[in-house]
Write a structure and sequence with these properties.
CATH architecture of the largest domain in chain B: 3-Layer(aba) Sandwich
Oligomer: heterodimer
Number of strands of chain B: 10
CATH topology of the largest domain in chain B: Rossmann fold
Distance between the termini of chain B: 67 Å
Number of strands of chain A: 12
Radius of gyration of chain A: 21 Å
Shape of chain B: elongated
Number of domains of chain B: 2
CATH class of chain A: Alpha Beta
Order of helices and strands of chain A: HHEHEHEHEEEHEEHEEEE
Largest interface: A-B, 79 and 104 residues
CATH superfamily of chain A: NagB/RpiA/CoA transferase-like
Helix content of chain A: 25-40%
Distance between the termini of chain A: 53 Å
Strand content of chain A: 15-25%
Chain lengths: 214, 470
């Protein structure tokens, strides 16, 4: 196949450019640790602060306490349908408990992917939070779906407090060795400033991200 | 993309006369600079991260063959098909072949400078594929039938009224003067494209050697849509994008968004590794990674190697007084601003891009903001020197420089000429600035006045002053 030849030619050009041939393979990561984080005060508070700074909302307390506020936030965004991954019991529980705070109906990721035009909220349990940047980490590991944070108008991420780490490095370490197909870092809503340099949310994905600390 | 960098002087004049562009440019670059400065001030580790990123890139480039080899091995092991293109023509050929073999009719594309460099759209369209730009600004430009610009704010010259008329004509949408309404219309039309596309085309902000991962950073989330929903994912990247391991990624992610737009982190970062696995809920069944040499291995060999450290943040553009005045299109190719003035001559050839190294005041701002510490001002000077030593100079320049050197070597001659100039200035302009010089110096005074020579040379004035004080 031609591609293989081209690859070999490229490596010949590279060795020539670097003025050597062969040498030890698999050079290790060249540097030591990253810059230190800011002071070691309350990680959850820092996470909430960083997420709020990029327009995200953090709700804490028991789900029962958070439900009225969450319902109101979803109604304010015009949400009429809720969906969650089939195997995500936590997300299912919250979405189902929200129905009385609607008018909300339940839908599925497949429906939304099929082009259902309803304004939706997508629920999912996140795998980690990063305090440094107010980031929610969701991946395709173990059959996890990204659709709730991708196709919805509002994304509601359920985040166990214990899963909030201080820095990006720690979050990446969770996937060390064999990363899944997709690790998605979400830090705020989908946004654009492409028209008259005016910041507008909901370019392609969620207009709002709400993190429910559990 | 066909370079027109040799037309820089003409393109720059056009840009300077364009009132809408001037207003938009001033606002955009000012906004970016302000946000960047705030973000850097709020992050005490910035300088340390810069140092580290520069060193990681430097060391990676010194062993690029090994890191790239590792990347190819790891990506292939996880189901990706890795292709290598020597030049733009070969890249187009490979992309067209991929589209045909995968049976793609519709492709959604997110912004990629590398794809633009090789005119990937053209190749896909010639292969019968409908290619939809999914970055909002690029989408607008594409609907308007203008060529893609791939600068930070591609539709910066269009007002909401123009965009509304465009959406009315091309998409059948009702007129509106609301920006959120326009964004919502584009979202709806592009959503249908994302759901129907057979292939998502992306660039890569980083390639991780350790794991064979492609890293994408976006705010709109279009890159994410196009790499989750379609059956095929094609990532296009220059070979210099590789970093050794996932452990190096945080440093670069701390620098890139802060330098680009002043954000601590962009809304979305996707780390994409291989094809969908067994039991995965979604993701592409096929992944192709197209690696571009296109002149990079030649750069690696020479004195400009460090330009390959670039992570395409655009900070040098916003900080450059020339870019602030003429914008991105004037540079006549994919890359603009100081990085374009260095990279374009190296990638397309110095003769084609001869005016670009001169499109700089050498103020040094680009070097100060570069998150990976590329010595851009040094490189601009070095390229000017290369240009002259390659004989790309005008007879006027040669004569002028020889004459200048001849005078500067003789203090007496200099002083005599200064006295003559002083007399002439008194006689012709009464000491006021000269508004028009005769040919061949007329170029100098076309756009600005030439300061009149003083009646007495500086050294004479200095002596008199000291005498008066002493």
């Amino acid at each position: 196949m031609r591609g293989v030849d081209e690859r070999e030619l490229l490596f010949r050009r590279l060795s020539a450019a670097l003025g050597r041939h062969g040498g030890p393979a698999g050079a290790p990561s060249p540097m030591g640790p990253a810059p230190p984080p800011a002071g070691e005060s309350d990680r959850i508070a820092r996470f909430a602060q960083a997420l709020a700074a990029v327009g995200g909302v953090v709700l804490s307390g028991t789900p029962e306490e958070a439900l009225p506020e969450l319902g109101e936030a979803l109604r304010a965004q015009g949400v009429t349908a809720l969906f969650f991954p089939q195997g995500d019991a936590g997300a299912r529980q919250v979405a189902e408990a929200l129905i009385p705070f609607g008018p909300f109906t339940l839908t599925t990721g497949e429906e939304v992917r099929g082009g259902d035009p309803a304004a939706t909220a997508g629920f999912r349990t996140a795998e980690a939070g990063i305090a440094e940047t107010g980031t929610v980490v969701e991946s395709s590991r173990g059959g996890g779906t990204l659709l709730p944070g991708l196709l919805s108008d509002v994304h509601v991420a359920l985040l166990p407090s214990a899963s909030v780490v201080e820095r990006m490095d720690e979050a990446f370490a969770l996937f060390a060795g064999d990363p899944p197909r997709n690790i998605s870092l979400v830090s705020g809503p989908s946004k654009t400033a492409d028209i008259e340099q005016t910041l507008t949310v909901g370019a392609h994905g969620p207009k709002k991200i709400i993190v429910l600390l559990v | 993309m066909q370079p027109t960098a040799h037309l820089f002087p003409r393109n720059a004049q056009k840009a300077l006369a364009d009132k809408t562009l001037q207003a938009a440019l001033g606002r955009a670059t000012g906004r970016f600079l302000h946000h960047r400065a705030e973000a850097v001030a709020a992050f005490p580790g910035f300088e340390e991260a810069r140092e580290r990123a520069s060193e990681v890139k430097r060391q990676t480039l010194a062993r690029l063959d090994q890191h790239l080899g590792r990347f190819i091995e790891e990506a292939s092991r996880r189901g990706a098909v890795v292709h290598v293109a020597r030049d733009a023509a070969q890249a187009r050929e490979i992309a067209a072949r991929i589209a045909k073999e995968e049976g793609v009719a519709l492709a959604v594309k997110s912004k990629s400078m590398a794809a633009e460099e090789v005119s990937l759209n053209v190749a896909l369209q010639e292969a019968g594929v409908e290619v939809v730009e999914s970055d909002l600004g690029e989408y607008i430009i594409q609907l308007a039938g203008e060529p893609p610009s791939h600068i930070i704010a591609p539709a910066v010259h269009k007002t909401r009224e123009e965009i509304s008329r465009l959406f009315e004509r091309e998409l059948g949408e009702p007129p509106t003067d609301s920006i959120p309404a326009l964004v919502a219309m584009a979202r709806r039309h592009l959503r249908a494209k994302f759901l129907g596309a057979g292939m998502g085309v992306s660039g890569a902000n980083f390639l991780v050697a350790d794991t064979g991962s492609v890293v994408l950073v976006t705010n709109e989330g279009n890159g994410r849509m196009g790499t989750v929903l379609p059956r095929v994912h094609l990532a296009v990247a220059g070979i210099e994008k590789v970093i050794p391991g996932m452990a190096d990624l945080p440093t670069f992610l701390r620098l890139l968004p802060r330098s680009a737009s002043g954000q601590p982190l962009s809304s979305y970062v996707s780390i994409l590794t291989g094809t969908r696995r067994e039991g995965d809920a979604e993701g592409p069944e096929r992944m192709h990674i197209l690696l571009l040499d296109c002149g990079r291995s030649a750069i690696l060999e020479g004195k400009y190697r460090e330009v390959l450290k670039c992570i395409r943040c655009g900070a040098c553009l916003n900080s450059c007084p020339v870019y602030q005045s003429v914008g991105g299109h004037a540079y006549g190719w994919v890359y603009s601003g100081p990085i374009g003035a260095v990279l374009t001559p190296l990638l397309v050839g110095l003769p084609e891009a001869a005016p670009l190294p001169d499109a700089s005041t050498l103020c040094g701002a680009c070097g100060d903001v570069c998150p990976v510490k590329i010595p851009l001002p040094d490189f601009l000077l070095e390229l000017r020197s290369d240009l002259r030593s390659q004989g790309l100079k005008t007879p006027g320049e040669i004569a002028g420089m020889k004459g200048y050197a001849g005078v500067m070597k003789r203090a007496g001659l200099l002083e005599a000429l200064e006295r003559v100039a002083g007399l002439l200035a008194q006689f012709f302009t009464k000491g006021k600035p000269v508004e028009g010089l005769p040919y061949p110096f007329s170029g100098w005074t076309e756009r600005r006045d030439f300061p009149a020579a003083a009646a007495q040379p500086f050294r004479k004035q200095w002596k008199n002053r000291r005498g008066a004080q002493g």
